[in-house]
Amino acid sequence: MTTARLPAALAEPVEPVGRGWTATLALANGAIWVGWFGPLQILLASQAGDLAPGSGMSKETLLAWVTGAGAVVSLLANPLFGALSDRTTGRHGRRTPWIVAGAAGGALALLLLAGAEGPWTMALGWCLVQLTLNAAFAAVTAAVPDRVPRPQRGAVGGWLGAAQMLGVVGGTGLATVAGGTGAGYAACAVFTAVGVLPYVLRHRDLRLAPRDRPVWAWRSFVAGFWLSPRRYPDLGWAWLTRFLINLSNGLVLLYLLYYLRDRLHHPDPGRGVLILTAVNGLTLMATVVAGGIWSDRVGRRKPFVVWSGVLMAVATAALALWQTWPGAVVAAALLGVGFGVFTSVDFALMTDVLPKALDRGRDLGVINVANALPQVAAPALAAPVVTYLGGYRVLYLVAAVVGLAGALLVGRIRGVE
């Protein structure tokens, strides 16, 4: 079967998307991240402090258990809902029903979480938030290879990355200024539900006809989540690249507060983290869209991913070798530059190596595991390094080596320029 004979939902897109389509999809993506990071940055920690005294756990332990349970749900939910959206044949298309259901369900789960009266209901509420918002997120990311031609994906990926950063900041701001934990959850819930509406109301999704959907079988459906690196080597190397660079970034951020306090002896480490985060965010926002557009114009992906990874490794090594406050500020700025370019161009690269149009949502969900898994792996790796193997200097050197390995392995991808 040739590409010309494929149904529209499965054909390689050739018509460029407009600014309105990109803006509304980016807004939907940012709204989902508001629903995640309002709780993660502020609300869950505050709630854990309120509920811990009667639970027999410290607030730190309670928060760790709740967020850990949510991370496990996230790892499973994203590829699952991506695969289900691939096989959706309703009149509203493959992705739109899941964006609507996921955002609405996420808003309701946030409201349920606001009313949690104990550790179990808190954990249940957060797991439901992760379950539902991952359904929406899987569909939003799959819309890009569905609708955006390859030469435009760097730019679109850049705008989605910018919206992600703004969603993190916006969620944190809503949670902070709303006036209490319950009001913070309500504000994030409303923004999440409303933020996806411009996209789903203004833009018709591509519909998959029932005859084009493969016959359902549990065995083949479950087996499909294993994407063999031997069969799909480009996808395997791309996944490993993303995992290693995200793991490196996770190792940098995990103990940043303690690094400022214990190694740099910063007089106000909390304020120091805020300053470094702001510097990092500004440089990231300055490069995330520009890097994607530049990649589109030159028609290449791998050099951008390689050199952004190398720059991040150099910045991480600076934290180990230049242990001063000015060194930390410079490192934060360079990390933002590198991660901004990486975020947009790597997303485009991932969509370029997807094996089959029919399974775009599932395959992107599997790829997104490379974003979530480092959140679990980083603490397991960092704790023994800091405690027994040389402290923060060794930790950041290890992080630099991990990131550099991820950058260099991009060269093993053969199917793209």
SSE inventory with pairings:
Blueprint: H1 19-51, H2 59-86, H3 96-114, H4 119-147, H5 153-177, H6 181-195, H7 197-202, H8 218-223, H9 233-254, H10 256-263, H11 269-298, H12 302-321, H13 325-352, H14 360-388, H15 391-408
Helix pairs in contact: 1-2, 1-4, 1-5, 1-6, 2-4, 2-14, 3-4, 3-6, 4-14, 5-6, 5-11, 5-13, 9-12, 9-14, 9-15, 10-11, 11-13, 12-13, 12-15, 14-15
Concise overview:
The chain has about 425 residues and is an all-alpha fold.
Specify the number of helices: 15
Q: Using only CA atoms, what is the Rg?
A: 21 Å
Number of strands: 0
Q: What integer is the average pLDDT?
A: 82
Descriptive notes:
The protein has helices spanning 19-51, 59-86, 96-114, 119-147, 153-177, 181-195, 197-202, 218-223, 233-254, 256-263, 269-298, 302-321, 325-352, 360-388, 391-408. The protein has 417 residues and is mostly helical. It is globular. Helix 1 runs antiparallel to helix 6 and helix 11 (269-298) runs parallel beside helix 13 (325-352). The longest helix has 33 residues, at 19-51. It contains 15 helices and no strands.
